[in-house]
Amino acid sequence: MAEQFPGAVLDLLEAAGDRPVFEHGDRAVSGHQLLALVRRVTNGLRARGVRPGDGVALLLGVTPEAFAAVLAAHTAGARVVGVRPGLTDAQREHLLADTAVQVTDRPDGTAAGALTLSDLLAAEDDGTRPHVSGRPQDVARLVHTSGSTGMPKACAQTYAAMTAAWVAHPDRWPPAVRELAPRLRRFLVFGTLASQVMMEYGLLALAAGGTLVADDHPSFPDSLVRHRATGSVITVARLTRLVADVRERPVDLGALRALMVSGSPVDAARLRQAADVLGPVVFHGYGQTETGMISMATPYDEPGSLGVPPVDLEVRDADGRPLPPGADGELYVRTPSQGCGYWSEPGLSAEVFTTGGWVRTRDIGHLDTRGRLWLTGRARDVIIVNANVHYAGPVERVLAAHPSVAEAYVVAAPDEHTGEAVHAYVVPAPGRTPRLGELHALVAAELGEATAPTRLTLIEEVPLTPAGKPDKRALAERGR
């Protein structure tokens, strides 16, 4: 039986030897040094009783030690939960509820009983290659959604799925990834390495012989220039600002070769503007928490296209029947590394993870006659803020509970800073006048700041579709 994840990553670190694989501030950490950190943290976790299948929560930044801790938790065979910044207290407690151990490098984020990363690094380094304990059908990690339904949903991914992933195996790279990987010689990482996207592109950079370059407080384009970064991940909103800033204040981005945009659609006009200002550097990825990468367009693909999917993909009508090229329908996919369901939510799992191993994306699109994928809409009522999906329904329910609100409807509105933002259309309660500040604070307290409305429009009544349902498309058009 093939060794489970992260065995292939440990092999990459061993092969890197004395070559720097991670830079943080003035430090350059080699493959052998990072492998030693993995050994120490793995030994520290095992000494504290962590066994395969145990839940381990990670509240970590972007240091070499944090990267080692992620790999160590997987080496121990744990069910890894990454806890990102920006969650409400209730949401964070929800993520931590089913974990045996919590590890943090954040002085202000230590929960009662949590282990500090420095505690684990005090373990002995025995100098031997760590034994990888993951079992194929055990859950390797829980990747949480935005939490806009109240509490974040946890998508479960097994060790078998992570082992089957292409990222650490150059012989498995799809064509677009083979174009991307050599451009990641100096890959800028920020935020948290517990992020699904940041971690996977970081592993790709390692597999391509590159170096991860960390920035605790990134600012584009300055961080790209300062670190001589050749690649990084970027949201649509940040890409828009970067293009505008570089056009107004040109800087030397001669080293830059790849910006990976994912999480939100990018329109063709914006891609052309980016190419004019930055050159052929934008790779437009399409994937989901549940599936991983589905398709990717290179800078040389037609703007608006998502390239040719290297995975199983079907476009289906409302009755589940496959549609021919050119016809729009809901996208169903199967990927090697897809999730197996939502943790402790069998009903929702059955709705999304369907028979035959197909995953419902709840996105609308089509394949053209050349096999290229084009997205044209959403089957879900969602707003995508800073590349995170937020559902409209929970926001509407919170708004409708306010005494000044009779009815509430929210739609996505374009936003220069976040890509999309929440625009609330409200029918006032008799004799009352809703205020944006009050409604914003209410939603932020219940669901988090990202879901709070930034715009408010008072309406006498909601427009209806011919079927008598609220016409939210008409509301969205009204706000453009």
From TrEMBL:
<feature type="domain" description="AMP-binding enzyme C-terminal">
    <location>
        <begin position="395"/>
        <end position="469"/>
    </location>
</feature>
<feature type="domain" description="AMP-dependent synthetase/ligase">
    <location>
        <begin position="16"/>
        <end position="343"/>
    </location>
</feature>
<protein>
    <submittedName>
        <fullName>AMP-dependent synthetase</fullName>
    </submittedName>
</protein>
<dbReference type="InterPro" id="IPR020845">
    <property type="entry name" value="AMP-binding_CS"/>
</dbReference>
<dbReference type="InterPro" id="IPR045851">
    <property type="entry name" value="AMP-bd_C_sf"/>
</dbReference>
<dbReference type="InterPro" id="IPR042099">
    <property type="entry name" value="ANL_N_sf"/>
</dbReference>
<dbReference type="Pfam" id="PF13193">
    <property type="entry name" value="AMP-binding_C"/>
</dbReference>
<dbReference type="InterPro" id="IPR050237">
    <property type="entry name" value="ATP-dep_AMP-bd_enzyme"/>
</dbReference>
<dbReference type="Pfam" id="PF00501">
    <property type="entry name" value="AMP-binding"/>
</dbReference>
<dbReference type="InterPro" id="IPR025110">
    <property type="entry name" value="AMP-bd_C"/>
</dbReference>
<dbReference type="InterPro" id="IPR000873">
    <property type="entry name" value="AMP-dep_synth/lig_dom"/>
</dbReference>
